[in-house]
Specification:
- The structure holds two protein chains of two kinds.
- Chain A is mainly α.
- Chain A has 14 helices and no strands.
- Chain A has two domains: about 60 residues, no CATH class; about 230 residues, MetI-like (MetI-like fold, Orthogonal Bundle), CATH 1.10.3720.
- Chain A is flat.
- The two termini of chain A are about 45 Å apart.
- The relative contact order of chain A is 0.13.
- Helix content of chain B is about 45%, strand content about 15%.
- Chain B is built from 21 helices and 14 strands.
- Classes of the chains: A mainly alpha, B alpha/beta.
- At the A-B interface, α1, α13 and α14 of A face α1, α3, α4, α12 and α19 of B.
């Protein structure tokens, strides 16, 4: 009896100490996330105009307006379109990672070069690519004319091309980061698996298709999840390089949100857009998690 | 237990999703915003916020120094907000949300309606009635009337309304031509009084246009749509500003005429050419015959343009014989929440009406003076380009030659920004102006209606 009581007391005090240790993160979570989430949810149901200071409850009016606004759907379509860059970027990053995951001279230099875009300032990159994409004097169109003898497209001025330009830029920009993740993934693959292939008489191609690529599935999963979430929130590059783009062709959902909030001062609607986007991200992420079981290798069989 | 775990993980995922999007929107709250009124070592401190070029910043710093000299014990904290007018508004909204409104700040005439209607601006009428400077200084009526607002009828620009802003300046948008280029091509210079008709204008453009690729010289560039539309007797909105009237034949004709300058006549850069090198750059490089400018461009042109230039009357539509361009202004407003309203008013008034400050402003090539006498005598006789300064004054004084953009009269301005973003369909030649305008009118009307 006595022993058990003592143990309980010890357990209790340990639990108290444990609680104390994890309190900061919970507090931070409650104060900085939960509170503001609840606040923005409430505000999305009001006609909160930041300039006029109104905050009347209007129910789902904001949501109704957004979901019936063709411009919102256009911005959503643009955003989804831009996410085509995710698989393309993964492909290139995988090739780079495979190439650099060997003993070779200047490996570090290549890695640095490929990673550089990821750490450069958005504005500097925007200026650089505006020049590359310049329809008349840009280096890209000069090369196209040199090699193919045809005039290149108006990369940033043509509504049908502007999204492709942004995808190319996004791939270039995100590649270094993805490559780094892939490199880490590659180095985590146990050597034994490759030895098995050797023993069974397989060649390098077999190693790649039967060991390397399937074993990387957890990394793909991570890259896709974060890529999709990041893609749905795309804003900075578009905002600086193209603005809205001709005929709103480069307007993303977050750009739409920004316009609601800061051009129309309608923060209530902006909150509503944020929630629509959040729910959208949540559903997509949930689907990805649900379907992941069938293709992500988790090390347990 | 298992279900509890599931619920928690779903909740966590949801939170992750929301917290990540939440960062997208409102992350730009400024913290360098000044305090709104107050004391600093026994001195009174007021804050003044504005945007503009670095040249403008220099001038306003000098003007503020003069204000501080005449007001001992007063310190003005000047927040120059770099970037575009749009960046400035975002910043101002952040300051508003943080309860850190500057005491005095600019509001562009296009944005004035929303701000005055939201009751964020102090009524300056009582201050002005007691001011000696205001009583003894004659500035353009128009420049004051545009910042009047009648709270009962919720209308701006009403002469009987109260005053909510003092004009920083009146900015007439005038056509400017490259004199050196005209002379080099042997083309007769535009008459300083008699405007060209559109037909004559296109003709002159053709004579000036020459060359290929990078070195192509264009007759004109960036022809202002307002100047074509109004000159042709059309307008964006109905008289009472409730109906979008872009779907008229006159409007379509004017818009098509502007588009065809590039598409058919080849005397103006196409959108593609313009995205390669902007019209302003082309103009500064001497590759454009006739473009547009406001008085705020004078300083830049004096410094960085190597050719001679002058301004000319707005070309007139063959049909109407009228040539109308736009006129804009920025108000110097006093925040409703300012703790030093009298002082704030005095600063706004000083910047707007003080003779010395105004002289400094026009001599630095930033504006046409607000004071009528000064504009008509000292400014007109100033020995610097443009020679034909009367064109600026005509656009200011004559309602047949200059008017405020339609967005000035509407609270919600998205109908206009939407139009501008979509109009590239016409500039690129994808649609004719008539088709486009017919198609876009309902969407514009919807936006206009939603702003009420």
């Amino acid at each position: 009896m006595e022993k058990k009581g003592k143990g309980n007391r010890l357990k209790r005090s340990e639990r108290r100490a444990g609680m104390l240790f994890i309190a900061p993160i919970y507090l931070q979570f409650i104060v900085f996330f939960l509170f503001f989430m609840a606040y923005s949810l409430y505000m999305s149901l009001t006609d909160w105009n930041i300039l006029e200071g109104t905050q009347n409850f209007i129910g789902f009016e904001n949501f109704k307006q957004i979901l019936t606004d063709p411009l919102f759907w256009k911005s959503l379509w643009n955003t989804l379109y831009l996410m085509l860059g995710i698989p393309i970027g993964m492909l290139f990053a995988m090739m780079a990672a495979l190439a650099l995951n060997r003993r070779m001279v200047g490996k570090t230099v290549y890695r640095v070069i490929l990673y550089l875009p990821a750490v450069s300032s958005t504005v500097a990159i925007a200026l650089l690519w505006r020049w590359i994409y310049n329809a008349e004097y840009g280096v890209l169109n000069m090369l196209i004319e040199q090699f193919f003898g045809v005039k290149g497209p108006n990369w940033l001025g043509d509504p049908d091309v502007v999204k492709i330009s942004l995808i190319i830029l996004g791939v270039w920009r995100g590649m270094g980061n993805t490559m780094l993740l892939f490199l880490a993934g590659l180095q985590n693959i146990p050597k034994e698996y490759y030895e098995v292939v050797d023993v069974s008489g397989g060649n390098a191609w077999h190693k790649l298709t039967y060991v390397t690529l399937p074993m990387m599935s957890p990394t793909y999963f991570y890259v896709i999840i974060t890529g999709v979430i990041g893609g749905l929130q795309a804003f900075g590059d578009q905002f600086i390089i193209t603005g809205l783009g001709p005929e709103h062709s480069a307007m993303t959902v977050v750009y739409y949100l920004w316009e609601k909030g800061f051009a129309e001062y309608n923060m209530g609607a902006a909150c509503a857009v944020a929630w629509v986007l959040s729910i959208f991200i949540f559903v997509i992420t949930l689907i990805q998690f649900k379907t992941s079981k069938s293709w992500v290798y988790d090390g347990n069989g | 237990m298992k279900t509890a775990k599931k619920i928690v993980s779903v909740l966590l995922a949801l939170i992750l999703a929301v917290s990540m999007t939440a960062c997208g929107g409102g992350g730009s709250t400024g913290n360098e915003g000044g305090s709104s009124g107050g004391n600093e070592g026994g001195n009174k401190v007021i804050t003044f916020a504005g945007w503009g070029s670095l040249a403008e910043k220099k001038i306003f710093t000098a003007m503020i120094d003069k204000f501080e000299e005449t007001h001992p014990g007063v310190k003005v904290n000047y927040q120059h907000i770099p970037g575009t007018q749009e960046d400035y508004l975002v910043k101002l909204i952040s300051l508003l949300a943080a309860n850190k409104m500057p005491d005095v700040f600019y509001i562009h005439s296009d944005e004035f309606y929303s701000w005055v209607d939201a009751d964020r601006l102090e009524n300056l009428t009582p201050y002005m009635e007691q001011s000696e400077l205001a009583a003894s200084t004659k500035i353009w009526d128009k420049s004051l009337n545009i910042f009047r607002y009648d709270a009962a009828s919720k209308q701006v620009g009403v002469e009987s309304g109260d005053l909510y802003g003092l004009p920083k300046d009146l900015g007439p948008w005038a056509m400017v031509y490259n004199k050196t280029l005209f002379e080099a091509k042997g083309v007769a210079l535009p008459d300083p009084k008699e405007p060209m008709t559109w037909t004559e204008f296109v003709d002159v453009c053709k004579q000036l246009t020459d060359g290929e690729g990078i070195n192509k010289v264009f007759g004109t560039a960036n022809y202002t749509l307002e100047a074509a539309v109004w000159s042709n007797g059309a307008d964006y909105l109905s008289e009472d500003k409730t109906q979008v009237t872009v779907d008229t034949p006159e409007f379509a004709e004017a818009m098509q005429w502007v588009a065809d300058l590039a598409l058919v006549e080849g005397v103006s850069p196409t959108p593609e050419e313009d995205s390669a090198s902007g019209w302003f750059q082309r103009w500064v490089n001497g590759k454009v015959g006739m473009a547009w400018m406001g008085p705020w461009d004078q300083a830049t042109f004096w410094d960085s343009v190597s050719f001679e230039w002058d301004i000319m009357p707005t070309p007139v539509s063959d049909k109407t014989g009228k040539g109308v361009s736009w006129l804009a202004s920025a108000a110097l407003c006093v925040s409703k929440t300012s703790e030093e309203k009298q002082l704030a008013y005095e600063l706004a008034e000083f910047l707007s009406m003080d003779a010395e400050a105004q002289t400094y402003n026009y001599e630095a090539g930033q504006a046409v003076p607000n004071i009528i006498d000064m504009a008509k005598n000292d400014y007109l006789s100033m020995n610097k380009a443009p020679a034909n300064k009367q064109v600026f004054l005509d656009i200011i004084e004559n309602p047949e030659k200059g008017q405020f953009k339609s967005v000035y009269f509407t609270k919600n301005t998205t109908w206009y920004s939407y139009f501008n973003a979509e109009s590239s369909k016409v500039w690129s030649g994808e649609m004719t102006a008539a088709e486009f305008l017919k198609q876009i009118q309902p969407a514009m009307q919807e936006r206009l209606d939603s702003g009420k």
